[in-house]
Design a protein that fits this description.
Elements (H helix, E strand, L loop, with lengths): L3 H5 L19 H16 L2 H22 L6 E4 L2 H9 L4 E6 L4 H13 L4 E6 L8 H7 L4 E7 L11 H8 L4 E5 L16 E5 L11 E5 L1 H6 L37 H17 L1 H21 L17 E3 L4 H10 L5 E3 L2 E4 L7 H21 L1
Helix pairs in contact: 2-3, 2-9, 3-9, 4-5, 6-7, 10-12, 11-12
Length: about 375
């Protein structure tokens, strides 16, 4: 894969899929590589096992390149929640987080507080619109606050937090912990303001479950105690018995056991494909797809609760129809895959979403609007 068009051409899933914020069907290149790696693991030969094990280093290097960091600061994790657990269970002090955060953030913070006998204390904020802005964070700051945990992109509305502005408001002495699951791989952003970034490959990277990572900047490692450090996260260089080695001085301390090499391979290929295509080009085309979805919703009189400014959004468009259940049923009946929760219907295209899918959405919303008018 060498060009952006090559990347777009890999979107071989059926028309009608608009649910990338929930799950990304595996790309052809990921499928091909994982089958090849599985064959190697099936041989049992040490040389074959070593070849597949090289995927771990590849994944770390590609992720680090995207983040603008060092490969040794990247750890591979079973999920983004595992990465957040390493960060939040090792902090002492108050941590600001929104009550509307995805449970990977909010529940992990609450569990960390319970497990540590309140060594870490949630400082909950509840913005009226659910958007974590610098002004809202500033109101919650005091001398007890040691960190802010935030989703870069809100999973409900697609609102994109301004990481640089959040860093400015919390200052240089507090940690900025970022869940980038809904942005990594589709948004060209400077992650330098963050101290911890977690992500997962099973959505926008099209790499499947288990392909997560957590990046711990050197400053974060100075503040976060590796309380969940396991057998791979110690100072020992090999198998150890009859001793209890200390946690490693590197980001490796925030690991529990050896990574799944098949998952590492899927992550490596998913990130490599994004790098080769160009993250800027992916973001631009995704923004155009989102523009089209918003235009379609506007044309058919369906309220959009997501941000309209490109700088404040990613790949999620949240619709707020008067009859969400009926709209969800209409979309499903038309073969359009979305996520419906409560009063919202979430539509999430990707850079490779085809014109046929958007036309189908337009036709379905048109028919839905006519049915609503007639029944009224």
């Amino acid at each position: 894969m060498s060009t952006f068009q090559d990347y777009v051409d890999t979107f071989d899933n059926e028309s009608g899929y608009l649910n990338w914020a929930a799950f990304g069907p595996l790309s052809p290149s990921v499928r091909e590589e994982v089958f090849a790696d599985a064959d190697l693991l099936g041989s049992g030969r040490p040389s074959s096992l070593s070849l597949v094990a090289e995927r771990v280093g590849q994944a770390q290097e590609y992720v680090a390149e995207m983040l603008g960091g060092a490969a040794e600061d990247v750890t591979l994790q079973p999920s983004s929640t595992h990465g957040l657990m390493h960060a939040l269970f090792g902090i002492s002090g108050a941590v600001i987080a929104s009550t509307a955060e995805f449970p990977s953030v909010s529940l992990t913070l609450e569990r960390a507080a319970s497990a540590s006998d309140r060594a870490v204390t949630p400082r909950w904020i509840t913005p009226d619109d659910g958007r974590v802005t610098p002004d809202v964070v500033a109101e919650a700051l005091d001398d007890e606050v040691v960190a802010l945990a935030v989703s870069h992109v809100d999973f409900r509305t697609g609102y994109r937090a301004d990481l640089a502005a959040l860093r400015d408001v919390i200052g240089p002495d507090r940690l900025l912990i970022v869940d980038a699951v809904q942005s990594f791989g589709v948004i060209d952003v400077d992650y330098a303001p963050a101290d911890v970034v977690v992500g997962h490959g099973y959505k926008w990277l099209r790499a499947g479950r288990g392909s997560a990572f957590a990046w711990f900047a050197p400053r974060a490692r100075e503040r976060i105690v590796p309380v969940l450090s396991g057998i791979t996260g110690t100072t020992a260089t090999g198998l150890f018995v009859d001793e209890l080695p200390a946690p490693a001085a590197s980001a490796r301390a925030y690991t529990v056991s050896g990574p799944d090499t098949l998952a590492a391979g899927r992550l490596a290929i998913g990130v490599r494909d994004v790098r080769d295509a160009g993250i800027g080009a992916i973001e631009e085309q995704l923004a155009e797809r989102v523009d089209t979805v918003i235009e379609i919703a506007d044309r058919h009189g369906i309220e959009v609760s997501s941000p309209r400014e490109r700088s404040q959004r990613a790949g999620i468009v949240a619709l707020a129809p008067e009859e969400p259940a009926r709209l969800a049923a209409a979309l499903a009946n038309a073969g359009i895959v979305v996520t419906a929760r409560g009063s919202s219907v979430r539509i999430a295209p990707h850079a490779g979403t085809d014109a046929a899918t958007l036309e189908l959405l337009d036709e379905t919303l048109h028919a839905f609007g006519n049915e609503t008018f007639i029944s009224a």
